[in-house]
């Protein structure tokens, strides 16, 4: 896999405000090498059938720690992580991590 970019990971913290509502805060975490591509039609169709959004697919090095509560930024745009697949060889050795991303279009919730 050729990694031709850098992705910034943001971790989410949830706090309760004085009215009992949740406030989400995103904090800069690690930066990792990546390869981000627009999602194929088959991915966007499948994502829609299982109830998630996917506008892009991102490939990360094996062992990258990421989860679906995180957001990421790439090329000055913020994305929500919607699905993660760790790709392994037959021997059980991880090759890379595939992450489905949904473009975050809400400026008030950018978090990044």
Give a description of the structure.
With 112 residues, the chain is mainly β. It has one domain (5-105): Thrombin, subunit H, CATH 2.40.10.270. Helix content is 8%, strand content 54%. The chain is built from one helix and six strands. The chain has a six-stranded antiparallel β-barrel with strand order 1-2-3-6-5-4. Strand 1 (5-16) and strand 2 form a beta hairpin. It is globular and about 50 Å long. It starts with a strand and ends in a 9-residue tail after the last strand. The mean pLDDT is 87.
Give the SSE map.
Elements: E1 5-16, E2 22-38, H1 41-49, E3 56-61, E4 71-74, E5 77-88, E6 94-103
Antiparallel strand pairs: 1-2, 1-4, 2-3, 3-6, 4-5, 5-6
What oligomeric arrangement do these chains adopt?
Answer: single chain
Distance between the termini: 27 Å
Write down the CATH topology: Thrombin, subunit H
In terms of DSSP E residues, the strand content is over 45%
Q: For the residues shown, what is the average pLDDT?
A: 87
Shape: globular
What is the fourth-level CATH superfamily?
Answer: Bacteriophage SPP1 head-tail adaptor protein
Work out the number of β strands: 6
Instruction: Characterize the main sheet.
Output: 6 strands, antiparallel, barrel
Number of domains: 1
Could you state the order of secondary-structure elements as H and E?
A: EEHEEEE
The count of helical stretches stands at: 1
Q: List low-confidence stretches.
A: none
């Amino acid at each position: 896999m050729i990694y031709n970019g850098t992705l910034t990971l943001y971790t989410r913290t949830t706090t309760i405000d004085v009215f009992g509502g949740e406030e989400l805060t995103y904090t800069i975490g690690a930066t990792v090498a990546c390869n981000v591509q627009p999602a194929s039609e088959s991915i966007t169709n499948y994502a829609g059938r299982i109830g998630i959004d996917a506008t892009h697919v991102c490939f990360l090095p094996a062992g990258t720690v990421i989860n679906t509560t995180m957001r990421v930024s790439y090329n000055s745009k913020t994305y929500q992580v919607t699905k993660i697949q760790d790709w392994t060889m037959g021997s059980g050795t991880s090759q890379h991590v595939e992450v489905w991303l949904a473009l975050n279009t809400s400026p008030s919730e950018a978090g990044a």
